[in-house]
Give the backbone structure.
Amino acid sequence: MGDVSAQTDKLMSSESFHAITLTHGLKNFGYTTAEAIADLIDNSIEANAKNIEIIFWEGSANPYVAIIDDGDGMLKDELENAIKIKKTISTSSNNIKLSKFGFGLKTASFSQCSDLTIITKKKNQTNFKKINSNLQTTETNLLSLLKKFPFVEKKFNQRCSDSGTVVIWDGLHDNLTGKNSGIKRSHAIFYEKGKIFSEHASTHFHNFLDKVKIYFNEMPIKNWDPFNESLENLKTFEEKKIKLGDFYITIKGYVYPKEEDFKNIEIYEKVSGPYGWFDSQGIYLYREKRLLSHGGWFGLRTGGQNHWQKETKYERCRITLNYDSQLDAYFKPNVQKTRAEIPPIIRGEVASYCEMVRKSSLEKRVRENKIIELTDSTEDLLVKNQDGKIEINLNHPNIETLLNKNLSATNKEFILSQLSKEIKKKL
Amino acid sequence: MELSLNSDEAIVKLMLILAHADENYHENEEKVIKDIVKKNNIKISSYQKILEEVKSLKGSYKEECLKALQLIKDENLRQKTLKSLTNLAAADFILHEDEMLLLQLISDEWGMYQHKLIN
């Protein structure tokens, strides 16, 4: 797709610039509902929110989605500015961190709905605005707005007593609501989108969830950290800094233990995360600690190899790559902030580091597959008890290992074949 | 079967609509609803009539819930309905999204919010 930032700069500076065309064009960029809400969460975090509530409300009337935060809120001119599509954008401002392009509020919203309402409070002033996807303002008053969304009114009073912002998506598109899907339980489609968002937020905002609470329909979203450093038997690699422009990116590798070396199956499943072990392997690209993309190998390779693909043998390898938003020109994140590229200038260095982690995971795997815990002890596996009956020798080192350790299937098969040989011999 | 306003049978109808949302009446759901029937001295024949009616409903889940909610106007009976819903929700016998919509309908129609159900 190329550099979106450069494309939009060019588009906006041209004489043919037309805000409505741009809004309609950008909304077709392919935002999923989860990505669109995540874009607004970026704004809330940047506005210093401590609590962010996402409400999927169907109720008696038409369904709507509301994003409510207790952040800084906006004054009237700030609100006007937020809903404007500007002809120029500053891609180098120090203030632009998570939000990146400054389009999110409009484009993310209109990718999901046709009517956008913003109610915001700052310095005891409450300001509001209702616009449609043609960027036309609907004349209304605060009272009738809140009357239409009584649950939001309750939340607004609760969360925004000092300051904060409410964004309401009304006139939701059919693919979000399940309307016209022809099924009796179309609401299930709507709430399912909400659940998918919860999973997305638990992963993509995991670095923020200790300081910022995000709720889906009043239930707190639990974070899923793909890099749980306190995990037993986790192999961590030294963090490497790579210079890029005037900044450094950081990269750090992890090799997870095999299934049998986890304390229990619950921890193993928790660490596998919402996407499973196979899809969770590879590079996790963070921008300002916000996860952009999870897993995959970004088409990297080292000398003469094919581009790396996801493979079962590397499913325990995970690598973090964190970069500063000042380096956006190199990483070229897309508007939805779900994809970026590893700049050609550092691909070689990143690939070498990843290769070290990948190789290490293979070495470990080869060693694990050997039957190293077992002995070729000459001690009998079967012994006679006091009654003269033959029974398994529980003192045999291999039987002890079998009973006390979480062995791999190969190891278990080895001991059982030893036993079966001895049974044949004794009988 | 014509149900009268503010009757215990109306609560049972609402519960049955919820239980049948996925077109499958689970035995655990049946047990909870039959307990409500017993506690409220509702005739088994009445329960069976309501059950047959719910099984043959043609409208969407939302439409049928809304109709059933209109039958419960009395504040005490509304509280009782929420308690019965709590029993179903706590036992996790129902599909989350159906439960969520019903709670939101109750919020809209009766002005009672989810926290009342949880607390």
Observations:
- Chain B touches chain A through 21 residues (CB under 8 Å).
- The CA atoms of residues 15 and 98 of chain B lie 11 Å apart.
- Residues 75-90 of chain B form the longest helix (16 residues).
